[in-house]
Amino acid sequence: MPRPVPVSLNEGAPLAARFHAVRALTEALAAPLSEADATIQSMEDASPTKWHLAHVTWFWETFLLRDNLPDYRLFNERWPFIFNSYYEAEGERIARFSRGMLSRPTMAEIVEWRAHVDQAMTPLFEREDLVPLIELGLAHEQQHQELLLTDIKHALFQNPLGPAMWDGASPRAAAQADGWYAHPGGVARVGHQASGFAFDNEGPAHRVLLEPFELSARLVTNREWDEFIVDGGYQSAGLWLSDGWAWVKREGICAPLYWHEGDQFTHVGWQARDPDAPVTHISYFEADAFATWAGCRLPTEFEWEAIARGQEGEAAAHDPAAGNQIDTAAPPMPRGSAGLFGDAWQYTRSAYLPYPRFKPAAGAVGEYNGKFMSGQVVLRGASCATPRGHSRASYRNFFYPHQRWQFTGLRLAKDL
Amino acid sequence: MPRPVPVSLNEGAPLAARFHAVRALTEALAAPLSEADATIQSMEDASPTKWHLAHVTWFWETFLLRDNLPDYRLFNERWPFIFNSYYEAEGERIARFSRGMLSRPTMAEIVEWRAHVDQAMTPLFEREDLVPLIELGLAHEQQHQELLLTDIKHALFQNPLGPAMWDGASPRAAAQADGWYAHPGGVARVGHQASGFAFDNEGPAHRVLLEPFELSARLVTNREWDEFIVDGGYQSAGLWLSDGWAWVKREGICAPLYWHEGDQFTHVGWQARDPDAPVTHISYFEADAFATWAGCRLPTEFEWEAIARGQEGEAAAHDPAAGNQIDTAAPPMPRGSAGLFGDAWQYTRSAYLPYPRFKPAAGAVGEYNGKFMSGQVVLRGASCATPRGHSRASYRNFFYPHQRWQFTGLRLAKDL
Amino acid sequence: MPRPVPVSLNEGAPLAARFHAVRALTEALAAPLSEADATIQSMEDASPTKWHLAHVTWFWETFLLRDNLPDYRLFNERWPFIFNSYYEAEGERIARFSRGMLSRPTMAEIVEWRAHVDQAMTPLFEREDLVPLIELGLAHEQQHQELLLTDIKHALFQNPLGPAMWDGASPRAAAQADGWYAHPGGVARVGHQASGFAFDNEGPAHRVLLEPFELSARLVTNREWDEFIVDGGYQSAGLWLSDGWAWVKREGICAPLYWHEGDQFTHVGWQARDPDAPVTHISYFEADAFATWAGCRLPTEFEWEAIARGQEGEAAAHDPAAGNQIDTAAPPMPRGSAGLFGDAWQYTRSAYLPYPRFKPAAGAVGEYNGKFMSGQVVLRGASCATPRGHSRASYRNFFYPHQRWQFTGLRLAKDL
Amino acid sequence: MPRPVPVSLNEGAPLAARFHAVRALTEALAAPLSEADATIQSMEDASPTKWHLAHVTWFWETFLLRDNLPDYRLFNERWPFIFNSYYEAEGERIARFSRGMLSRPTMAEIVEWRAHVDQAMTPLFEREDLVPLIELGLAHEQQHQELLLTDIKHALFQNPLGPAMWDGASPRAAAQADGWYAHPGGVARVGHQASGFAFDNEGPAHRVLLEPFELSARLVTNREWDEFIVDGGYQSAGLWLSDGWAWVKREGICAPLYWHEGDQFTHVGWQARDPDAPVTHISYFEADAFATWAGCRLPTEFEWEAIARGQEGEAAAHDPAAGNQIDTAAPPMPRGSAGLFGDAWQYTRSAYLPYPRFKPAAGAVGEYNGKFMSGQVVLRGASCATPRGHSRASYRNFFYPHQRWQFTGLRLAKDL
Fold first, then answer.
1. Between A49-59 and A131-157, two packed helices, what is the crossing angle to 10 degrees?
2. DSSP D144
3. Which NCBIfam families match (chains A, B, C, D) (predicted)?
C-alpha cells in the first residue's frame, strides 16, 4: 500500500469540513496497517494505533457529545475506562502499559464508533460557544496523528524482520540554507497573541528580555552527527550533562535511535541513511552534548520564537501547504529554506514551565497541558510527521530529556 | 464461534494420520481468534497464539525437514530467529518478551508455512529411524496446544472488557468420588517402562522406596478453597513456606488467579464459580499452604505415580476418549471417578530433578527437558486443556513455584 | 554530647583563619557521632559522615595541594578513587552507593589526613592567584557541612530506635511576620554582581523582566500543612503535577518526610511537632501542590531574588550572625522577621538552567555546577543547617523534584 | 591482630562449659573488627557482625530466658524488633536490608547484653527438659559464627582498598587423596539416627534406594576450575542449566566470587590463588556446569551421606580436632585425606525438601528449617569456616542456586 495522501484544509475552511478532514486523515494513516499492527504497544510511552483511533473519539464523545448533547448516549459504557488517557477528573482508567492488551474491541468496532460520533457531532458545529472546544479537539486529534506515526514506527522497529508500513523509497533531503539568523537582543514579545486557536500553554503572551544571539539557519545533519560519533562524542564525559552521561552508560547509547551501521529504520523499512538529511530521533541529552561539542549551545524557546516571528509572522508560521511529510516521503512541495518548521522538532534549552499568569482551564480539559510542567523540555517547530497547519511560532512541544522516539533534531545557537 | 471440537486419534493410528490430526487441532484451537488476539503477549511466561502456531512449525522444519531432507529449503530464512524458543544450539533468537511485537508475519503467512511444512513431511513418515523424532514433534505440538489455551486465557484476562474466546456456558462439575487410595509402602517401580513414546525426563525407569501413605481420590474444590480463604489462609504466615509468604506479601495475593468475588474468568468470559469444581490456577506455594492448613501434605511425584499405575496401567493412563476438555466445556464423555487425569495438573512436593542415570539426548533436542532441572516443581496428571492421549502415568510436567496461569490444582496426601 | 557550637568568622577575616574555622566546624559537627554512625549510608543520595570529612579533604589535596605544590605527595595514593565524588576529569571512582561499605579507612586515619592537609595548605594562603580556588574550597566544605547534617539525620531515621545525634530539646519556632512583599514588576538585575565569592552558576549577572507579584513574608508552617492534609491534599489528583501524582501513588506519600502522627524526627530524636515552625522536608511536588491548594503559586527564582535584594542587598543577605542553626537548636540570636534566609530552603518554580552566557570553568572544577543543569529545580534562601555566611541573594541551590531529605520548605507567591 | 584461636569443647563436655565456649568463640571472631566493620551490611543475604552477636543473644533471651524464667525481664524491650531474624510467630521485625543501618545499639551495649544473658542462663543448665532447646541454641550460634565470617568477608570485599580482617598469610593447601569411593547401590539408611543433637530437618531417619555410583575422594581444585575457564566453560550454553545460563548472562559471571586475575580475596586481604586448594565461592549453577563439563555429575545428598557414613560413622563425622579453620589459616592439624568435612560445603543435586514424615517442631522454633524447603539445594560436609564439631554425616546445609558467598565447592560423582 502506498503512503496515505492527506486531504486537509486550512484554518479558513468551515469548521465541519475541517473536522471531517482531520477525522479522515487519522483513518487514512491507519489504513496500511493490519489489525495486529494496530494492536501492539512497544513501550509505555507509546500507544497502539487502534488505541489512538479510539482515544481521540473518546475525547469527542466525552467533552463534546456527552457534555453538550442532553440526549446523547455513550456508544459503549465500558469503553471510557480503556480509552481515557490521563484525565483524572474523568475517573479511573486502564494502566498505560496495558493498552497493548486490547485485542478487543476490533478495528471494525472502533471505526463504527468513529462514524457514530462523527454523525452525532453535526448539530454541535452550529454552537458558537463550542468552537474553542472543537478547535481543541481538532488539535488534539492532530497531535495523535503524529503520535500514531511515531508509535507505530517504534513498534515495527521491534520486529527483527524490519517490516515497512507502506511502500516507496525515502527521498533525498532538500538542500538547507547555510548561515545564521542574528538577533540584536532586547525585549521580545512571545506567546500566542494572534487570533486563532492555540493551546493554553502558549499563553499568556508576555515580554522577555533577550541577549544578542545567533540561530543557525539549518538543522544539524546526519553527516555532522557522524562526525560527532567519530570524534568520540559518546565516549567523552566532559561533553555531557551529568544525567545524560548516566543515561548513556546505563543504556549503552552510541548513536541516535533507529541507526544501525549506515542504515536507518523508517516507515518504509531499513534504508540507507542520507547524510544530508537532518538528524532525528535524538534525546535532549544528545542534542545538548552535540551543541557543546560544536562550540555552540541550544537556543532558548524564546530565542527560537523571536527568530520564527521575525521571519514568518504567527499566522503563516507552519506552511499549510507543507503537508504531512512523513519521514519517508517526498515533500509534495518545497519548503522555504528559511522555514523553521518541518523535518524535525528542535530542542531548546528551556524547561517546560508555565508562562507568567498561566492558569489551566477549568474541568478535565484543564489537565491537557498544565500538569505536565515538570521535568520536561520544550521543543519548537514541527516535524515531517506533524500534520500540516498544526504548528505555529508559539507552539510548545515537550518531552522528557531521555525520550527520542519522536522526530527530534536540533538547530544550534550561539551568543553574540 | 463455538468451542472447537477436536478430531483426534489414539496412538494406534498411522503416524501420518496422527500427524495431520494434531496439526489440524492446533489450527482449530486458534480459529476463534482474530489476528489481533493471536498477536498479543501478556507476560514473559506466555506466548502469542500466532507464535505457537509458528514455533511448532519451526520445530518440524528444523529437526525433521532441514536435518533429514537433503533438498529442503527453508520457507523463510529469517523466521528461525523469531520462532526458535530456547534452543541455544540453534543460535541466537528474539528476546522472549518481544514475541508480542510480531505483528508480522501475518496469520495467513504462518498458515501457508504450516501447509508447506505439512506437505513436505510426507516422505519422512516412511523413515523408521525418524519415528522417535516425529513422536517427539507430535508431543511437542500437543504441549503447545495446551500452552496456547492457557496463554490466550491470560491475555484475554488482561482486557477489562473480559472478552470470551468462544461462545457457550461453563458446565457444572461432575461429582468426584470421596475417599483415599491407600498404599502400603515398599519398593515401587517408577518412570517410563512400557513401549510407546515418552519424554526423556520420564526415564530411566527405576525403583524407589515408599513409606505407607494415602492419596485423596479427589481434587480439592473451589468450595474448600473458599473455606481456606474464610479461615484466614492468606493471612496466616505459619501455613506458608518462607518464599511463598514473601510472594503473597509482595504480590498482594489473596485468591487463586482469575478469581473475582464469586466469579472466575474462563475461556467463555466471566462466569459464576462452581463450588464443586476442582480449584485451578493456584501456585505451588498456595497448594502447599492449603495442604498444611488441611492437616495433610502434597504427595511426592512417586507416590502419585504408584497410585496411578495401580489403577490404570501405563498405556491407559490418560483416557484417550477424554478429549480436549477446555475448562469451559462439558466433557464429551464421563471420566472414571478414579481417574487421576483431567481437570487439573496436580502439584507434588517433588522438585523437578533428573532420574538416576538420566542423560539428555545429543544435539539441540537434548535441550528439551534436561536444562530446566532446577528451581521447578513436578506436577502430575493432566488438565482440562491437555490434549487427549497426551499424558500418562510417568508424565512429568514442571513449573516454577509461583506460576499459576496453567490449570493447576491439588490432591491431598497423608502418611499412614 | 551537646550540640556543637560553631566557631566561625565572617568574610572579612584573613583567609587562613577562615580556612581553619571552616575545617574545625566540619569536625565539630562529626564529633557527637560514633565510628559506626559515621560509616553508614542510608540511600544513594546521601553519604556517610566519614566520607564527607574525607571528600572535602580530597578536594583540597587534589585541586590545591597536588596542582599547586610541586613537591606535594598524596597522603594515600588509593584514596582519591574512593573520595572523588563525581569529577569525571579526575578519573574513575567508587560507585556512589558503595560509600557505605567504607569501614576503612577509620575516622582516626581520616582525621590524621585532615591535619596533614591543613598543615600543607599553609604556604598557599600567600598565593593571590589561588584565592578564588580557596574560596571555592571553603564554600564546598560548607556545602558538605549541611549535607553531613541532613545525611546523618536520614541515616539515624532508619533506625527503629530513633537515636538522637546530640542532647537537648527542640526550641519553639520564633514568630514569623505576616503579610506580603509586593513588587511592581519591570526589569530587575539578577545574578552575582557584587565583589566576593560566588559559585559560577550565580552568574553572569543579567537583567530579567518581571510581572507585578507578591511574595509572602513568611514560610508555610506545619499548622498550615496539617490543614492541607486534613483537606485531602494528598488524595486530590487535581492539585498535583502529573509526575508528582505518580510519585505520591507509587511511594505511598501522605505527609512530609520525618512526620509520624504528631511527632517529627529531628537531630535530637523524635519530638512533638511545633505547629508554628516552618514545614520542612517536602518535595517540589508537594510544595507545588500546596501552593495550588492555597490558591497561590511558587515564585520564580528571580522574583525571590528581587525581593531579597530589595530588602537586604547582596552582601548582607545571609546574616553572618545567624549561626549554624541546626533544626533542633535555638538560634543564637533572633533573625529579622523580614529575612528570607534561615529555617528552610525555599522552592521556586524555576528549573535549574544556565544563565545567559554562562560558561563552566575550565578543568575538573568546571564540573562543579554546570553539568547538573537538567531535571532539577532551584531553591533559594538558606536553611537551619546552612553554615552562617554561606548563602546570599544570588545563591542557587538545586535538587530533583522528588527529593526531600534537605530542610526544604516554601514561601507562597501570587500575581498582582 | 592475629587470627582468633578458638577455645572449643567436644560434645562430651558439660553443657554449661560448652555454652560458654561457644559464646566466647563468637566474641573472639568479632574481636578483630572495628565498630564500623561490625556495622556494615553488604547485601540483603548478609548481616552485620554486630547484628549476628545480638541476634543469637535474642535467641537465648527469647526462647530460653523469657519462656522459661518466670521473673526474667528483657534487657531492652525494643531490641527484639531489630534482632529477630525471620520468626513470624515472634512478631514484626525490621526489614532485612535495614540491618546495616543499626549504628546503635553500640557494640559495647551488645556485649553488655551478651554478658547479662550469659549470666541469666545459669539456672537453666540444670533443667533436663531444656537440654534439646539449649543444644539448638548452641547449634544456632555456631551457624551464625560461620555466617559472621562469610558475611564480613563479603562486606570487606566491597571496599576497593581490600582490607584484611586479621594478619597472617594463607597457607598452602594440604594434598588431597586421589581416587573414587565406590558404592554398590542398594538400600541405605539415611538421616539422623544416633544419639546427640541434630536439626529437625535431618530426620526422620529413613531408607533410600541407591544405584551403584562413585564419589570422588577429593574436592575440585582451583587449578581444575582454571581449566574449565580456559576451555570456555562460562561461554558454553550447552553446559549450563537454563536458569544458570540466564544468571551467567545477566550478572556477567566469568569466574568464582572473589577471584580477580591470579588473586583471590580472603580474610587476610588479596592473596595469590593456590592452584591446589579446593575451589570455593561458586554457585550451584557453576558446580553443575563444571560437573557436566567434566563428564560427571553432582552426587545426591544420600549418595554423599552413604559414603560419609561408610567411612566415619555419625559421631566422628566432623573431626572435633579439625578446628575452626578459617580460609586463610593453617589447619591446626592435618585432616584425614578420606574426610568429607572441612574446606568447603559440597553441592549435591538434591533439592532441599522434607524427609518422609517430617514434622516441624511446634511454636516459633518450628520456623527454624521447615519453611525454607522450596527453591534451595542441599550442601553436605562442612567448610573451613564451620566451627569444629558442628557438622555431621546427616547435616543438611541449604542455599539458593545462585548464592556463592559461602565457602561452597564440589566433589564429583558418576554412575557405575
1. 170
2. H
3. egtB_TIGR03440 (TIGR03440)
